[in-house]
């Protein structure tokens, strides 16, 4: 399903002076080596998330193409002391996508992007995370970034990718990780190489807004920043293995390898061996070698009937220990223990249920839209029949009056029928019929409270009906009320569909047929086109009238 390109996307603008030229650095989707600088905060810091400036007071509309053009016009000058082997990753092919064209993203059952298109999404997230106007760097925590900015980033992504609407949580989490890793890289390359804050501020990276860089420098130099850095350096030192997957996520490694194996998903232990072994089949380092050796030993003890299924007691857990709160090692970003090891109704199950509910809701919306369309079509036809809104209102007023008076009409089948002109006409017509024709008379009655009581009904000799244009056109029909389409008001014979045929001195037109009335089921039903003394269905028995073709139902031909 495609999404309409979001036009008028709102972008955050800094108010503190003119913006410098911006060139993005290349940021790969690889394991961060900077957790000692921007890693997890301790429990006390989580309770109060610091931030160093107020959210932008206003957001100026700027299209994603304008943002791309802004990068095209940036300065190409480089500091002679800094040498780069290649320019920043820009994802030009995504910025240049035509309006209405999207990149389809596939997700696995754990809510992670997989397949060839996932590489484009992940790379594009890295590009967006480095844009200081959309993702300001002068906040100390991704959770403190204003919601307006996050919504802006989400709208940009929705205008480029299809199939991501149910996976916003993973995408925003990935954006936050890349935003944090980018700040780590900036600190390593542009902060730690200088000894004083004055030098650091003076050598602001050309990819960073100066006002944001200055606040970053002050925070990193503050006691709080120094304490956080020390804590995270200690935690990072405990990681002794390094993977060989590069920018490829573990989820993509698992997906691609399982595809090659006929669809069988890899265990966490198999993923570890695959991502910590060099091309020459040698382990990455001694720590990796020891872990792989232990994994091989446990795998050899599995019987043919047993599999190393994902769970809290799988081989990976036996080698590396139990999982801590917040993540599951070996699967990549996203899955957490409470989802995969907890109750059956995991987060992904809830997502699937949500998608199914949305599909069901969409079906109901489509049904309602179809009903509305049908009502609008009926209204249009009614307007064609009645000619003007004024005539329509008159008929509706007539219908309302009928509704108010119908309760006073006789409801008994043996109620007397008032003599009217059409009954006299019927008697005269019967007297003119031959004895053979009179012998074909039969008794008919109606079960509706609005129908006429049982009475003798004449079977009309079809040879006496004039103006029938063809044998195929002649048919017995039921007339339905335009005001109550499910209520039958009369039975008769279709005489003509010719638009030029005149009834009561007026041509039928395209919306009316000429009908010969034989039985008045609801004598009080008003004629749409009355003429002469014929005002109701009861008046028009044994006469021809013009009736809307929309409300004519065939009995048999």
Automatic annotation (TrEMBL):
<feature type="compositionally biased region" description="Polar residues">
    <location>
        <begin position="30"/>
        <end position="50"/>
    </location>
</feature>
<dbReference type="InterPro" id="IPR004252">
    <property type="entry name" value="Probable_transposase_24"/>
</dbReference>
<feature type="compositionally biased region" description="Basic and acidic residues">
    <location>
        <begin position="73"/>
        <end position="82"/>
    </location>
</feature>
<feature type="compositionally biased region" description="Polar residues">
    <location>
        <begin position="59"/>
        <end position="72"/>
    </location>
</feature>
<keyword id="KW-0175">Coiled coil</keyword>
<feature type="coiled-coil region">
    <location>
        <begin position="358"/>
        <end position="385"/>
    </location>
</feature>
<feature type="region of interest" description="Disordered">
    <location>
        <begin position="1"/>
        <end position="87"/>
    </location>
</feature>
<dbReference type="Pfam" id="PF03004">
    <property type="entry name" value="Transposase_24"/>
</dbReference>
<feature type="domain" description="Transposase Tnp1/En/Spm-like">
    <location>
        <begin position="476"/>
        <end position="541"/>
    </location>
</feature>
<feature type="compositionally biased region" description="Low complexity">
    <location>
        <begin position="436"/>
        <end position="449"/>
    </location>
</feature>
<dbReference type="Pfam" id="PF03017">
    <property type="entry name" value="Transposase_23"/>
</dbReference>
<feature type="region of interest" description="Disordered">
    <location>
        <begin position="423"/>
        <end position="455"/>
    </location>
</feature>
<protein>
    <recommendedName>
        <fullName>Transposase Tnp1/En/Spm-like domain-containing protein</fullName>
    </recommendedName>
</protein>
<dbReference type="InterPro" id="IPR004264">
    <property type="entry name" value="Transposase_23"/>
</dbReference>
């Amino acid at each position: 399903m495609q999404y309409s390109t979001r036009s008028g996307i709102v972008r955050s603008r800094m108010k503190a002076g003119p913006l410098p030229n911006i060139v993005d650095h290349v940021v790969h989707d690889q394991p961060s080596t900077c957790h000692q600088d921007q890693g997890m905060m301790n429990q006390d810091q989580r309770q109060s998330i610091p931030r160093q400036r107020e959210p932008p007071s206003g957001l100026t509309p700027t299209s994603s193409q304008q943002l791309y053009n802004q990068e095209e016009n940036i300065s190409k000058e480089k500091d002679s002391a800094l040498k780069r082997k290649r320019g920043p990753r820009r994802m030009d092919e995504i910025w240049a996508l035509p309006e209405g064209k999207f990149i389809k993203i596939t997700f696995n059952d754990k809510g992670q992007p997989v397949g060839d298109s996932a590489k484009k999404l992940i790379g594009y997230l890295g590009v967006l995370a480095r844009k200081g106007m959309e993702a300001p760097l002068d906040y100390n925590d991704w959770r403190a970034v204003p919601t307006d900015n996050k919504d802006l980033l989400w709208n940009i992504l929705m205008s480029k990718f299809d199939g991501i609407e149910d996976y916003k949580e993973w995408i925003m989490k990935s954006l936050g990780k890349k935003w944090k890793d980018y700040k780590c890289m900036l600190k390593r390359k542009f902060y730690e190489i200088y000894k004083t804050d004055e030098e650091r501020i003076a050598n602001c990276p050309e990819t960073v807004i100066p006002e944001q860089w200055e606040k970053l420098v002050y925070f990193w130099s503050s006691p709080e920043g120094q304490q956080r850095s020390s804590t995270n350096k200690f935690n990072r030192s405990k990681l002794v293995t390094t993977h060989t997957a590069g920018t490829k996520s573990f989820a993509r490694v698992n997906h691609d390898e399982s595809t090659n194996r006929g669809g069988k998903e890899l265990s966490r232990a198999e993923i570890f061996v695959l991502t910590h072994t060099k091309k020459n089949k040698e382990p990455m380092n001694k720590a990796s070698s020891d872990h792989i050796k232990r994994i091989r030993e446990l795998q050899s003890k599995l019987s043919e009937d047993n599999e190393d299924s994902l769970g809290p007691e799988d081989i990976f857990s036996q080698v590396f220990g139990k999982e801590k709160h917040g993540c599951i090692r070996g699967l990549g970003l996203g899955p957490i223990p409470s989802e995969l090891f907890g109750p059956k109704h995991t987060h992904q199950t809830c997502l699937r249920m949500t998608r199914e509910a949305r599909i069901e809701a969409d079906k109901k919306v489509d049904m309602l839209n179809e009903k509305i369309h049908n009502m609008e079509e009926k209204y249009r036809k009614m307007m064609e029949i009645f000619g003007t809104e004024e005539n329509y209102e008159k008929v509706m007023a007539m219908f309302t009056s009928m509704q108010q008076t119908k309760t006073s009409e006789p409801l008994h089948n043996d109620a007397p029928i008032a003599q009217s002109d059409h009954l006299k006409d019927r008697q005269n017509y019967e007297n003119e019929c031959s004895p053979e024709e009179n012998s074909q008379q039969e008794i008919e009655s109606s079960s509706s409270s609005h129908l006429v009581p049982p009475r003798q009904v004449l079977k009309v000799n079809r040879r006496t009906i004039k103006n029938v244009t063809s044998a195929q056109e002649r048919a017995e029909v039921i007339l339905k009320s335009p005001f109550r389409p499910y209520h039958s008001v009369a039975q008769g014979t279709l005489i003509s569909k010719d638009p030029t045929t005149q009834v009561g001195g007026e041509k039928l037109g395209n919306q009316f047929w000429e009908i010969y009335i034989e039985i008045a089921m609801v004598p009080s039903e008003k004629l749409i086109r009355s003429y002469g003394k014929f005002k109701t269905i009861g008046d028009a028995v044994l006469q021809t009238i013009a009736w809307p073709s929309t409300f004519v139902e065939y009995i048999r031909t």
